[in-house]
Amino acid sequence: MKPDLEGKVAFVTGASRGIGRAVAVELASRGADVALAARNVEPALEVAEEIRAGGRRTMAVALDVADPAAVEAAARQVGDELGKVSILVNNAGITRDQLLLRMKEEDWQAVMRTNLDGTFHCTKAFCRDMVRARWGRIINISSVVATLGNPGQANYAASKAGILGFTRSVARELAGRGITVNAVAPGFIETAMTDGLPGGTKEALLGSIPLGRLGSPRDVAGLVAFLAGGRGGDITGQGIHVDGGMVMT
Ligand code: NAI
Question: Fewer CB within 10 A of the end CB, N or C, for the chain?
């Protein structure tokens, strides 16, 4: 059987490690050629090796998604080298945790620039070709804290909640062009982002997860690949949780 995503080109931000890496490898395993974007290109080159070994075309781009000119340049470069992107995964994200009263202006700005502005820049730059092709998939990585909130993460939660509103609005704008736009909201996933949590916090966390486990990057990647494929074609404007049941609606 022909792989679901054969002939498609995907662009994944923050693809050097964690969830982005798993998403890139999963999309490639389903037949897509995948461009990998990360601030630091060295680890992304390793991911590219893995994808090439599986028989797909790939390239790694050093990119700060907060820089709109750099995003436009990356879109041109990927278009020239791999072909027109029809699957965009806005995954790049950072935290700068601090209680509100101690949160510095720069902590707020840094998180907004990468998480929310970066999603805007990439969506704007990459959706043009999707509009022309009248087919596209945009998947934005939000978070469980967009819904639940989290002390010490006012900046991060606001950026991830912003992604949900952005997703719904753009989904409505682009629906007529055959483009779906969805958000995936992971709970607590075992990556570098959660490695730093102190022991006690991790145990308390597990107690708040109905399934009693941290998720894996592959759990998230499976849903992203489903939304990117043919069978996800009737789903748009949604925020779907992969969180062991932390949010049930
Ligand atoms: P990570 O810290 O392991 O990887 C983040 C990736 O984003 C790296 O490749 C990094 O180079 C890239 N990145 C960061 N800032 C960037 C920028 N300005 N421009 C380009 N690339 C940039 O993170 P992880 O855990 O894999 O998270 C991925 C996404 O999933 C993030 O958006 C995060 O907020 C979200 N998420 C993660 C959860 C978790 O428990 N790990 C839970 C909920 C959401």
Answer: N
How many angstroms separate the alpha carbon of residue 237 from the centre of ligand 1? 22
Q: CB under 8 Å to 119, separation ≥6 — which residues?
A: 65, 90, 140, 163, 166
**pLDDT tens, 10-41?**
999 999 999 999 999 999 999 999 999 999 99
Domains, the chain, in order of start with CATH, read 9-240 (3.40.50.720)
Residues annotated as catalytic are: 156
Spatial CB neighbours of 191, under 8 Å, sequence gap ≥ 6:
17, 18, 19, 217
How far is Cα 75 from Cα 68, in angstroms, rounded to an integer? Answer: 11
The minimum-distance atom of ligand 1 relative to the CA of 217 is 26
